[in-house]
C-alpha cells in the first residue's frame, strides 16, 4: 500500500513538473487570418497590462495597449470599458474613478478619488494616464483604430445604462461604421433592450452574463433576443485555481468530472441554439487549451498569445 501511494505521488510530481515546463503564454492557436465571431479567437482584455514588454499596470484601456495588441500580437478582437464623463463624452476606464490608472501631471499619486462621471473630459485630460504623458482615451479613438484594422470590439458599458447614454454610445459606434464589428455588454442584461430599440437593422451583437446554464439559455430563448441581434455571446467568468490544485481535482474527485461533463453540455446546448460561447478572463495556456478543446469559441485574456 505504501509503495502504491509512493508511486502515485511520484507520478503526480512528474506530471506537475511536465505541465509547468510546457505551460507558457502561447495558447496553441494560430493568428487568425480574418475576423469572425464564430471562429476560435482570443480577446485582448482592456484592463490588462502584461502584453507590453517592460510595461505593467497603468496602461489598461490605453491606445498603447490596443495598438500593440492589434499590430504586433495579431489580435482581431479587443475589449474596452466605457464610462461617461460629466459632459457626456464616452471614455475608456475600468473603474468608476481614475486613481488606479492615472496620476497628477508631475507623476505624484492622486490623493482624492477622481470619479469619471463627476469630471469633464477636458479635466480628465489634465491627468497623466500611463506614466508617459498619455491621456484618457475616448471611445471614438478606439473605434477609429478598430475600423482601420478590421478588428471586432467588445464594448463593456460600465456607465449607467440610460437612454441618453445608450444613444451617445450607439452614435459613436455608428459614426465609424462599426455596428457590425461590435458586441455590447451592458451593465446588466436589461440594457440590451435599449440598444435594440436603436438598432433597427439588427446588426449589433450582444454579450449576456449570468446565463451560462441550460436554464439560463432557455430564458434567453423566451426573450427572443436572437431575432433582434446579429450574434448573442453567452459569457462565463471562470475561477483559476493553481496548477497543482487543478491537476489534483482532475485526477481525484469524481465530482469534478461530473462538473466538466455538465459544462460541456451547456456549451453544446448553446451552440445548438445558435449562441456563441465565451469564457473570461483566462491567463493560463493550459486552461485556454482546455476551454477551446471542449468547444468554447472566445477566450478573453490579459496575456495569452497566438502561436506564430
Kindly report the average pLDDT value. 83
CATH topology: TIM Barrel
What is the CATH superfamily classification? Phosphatidylinositol (PI) phosphodiesterase
Strand order within the widest sheet?
Answer: 2-12-11-10-9-8-7-3-4
In DSSP terms (H or I, runs of 4 or more residues), the helix count works out at: 10
- CATH uppermost class: Alpha Beta
Task: Flag low-confidence runs.
Answer: 4-23, 251-257
Percent in strands: 15-25%
- What's the order of the H and E elements? HEEHEEEHEHEHEHEHEHHEHEE
CATH second-level architecture: Alpha-Beta Barrel
Tell me, briefly, the overall form.
Answer: globular
Describe the overall structure.
The protein has a single domain (about 1-305), classed as TIM Barrel. Helix content is about 35%, strand content about 20%. The chain contains 10 helices and 13 strands. Helix 1 crosses helix 8 (about 245-250).
Structure at a glance:
This protein has 308 residues and is of the alpha/beta class.
Quick tags:
single chain; 308 residues; alpha/beta; TIM Barrel; nine-stranded mixed β-sheet; two-stranded parallel sheet; 13 strands
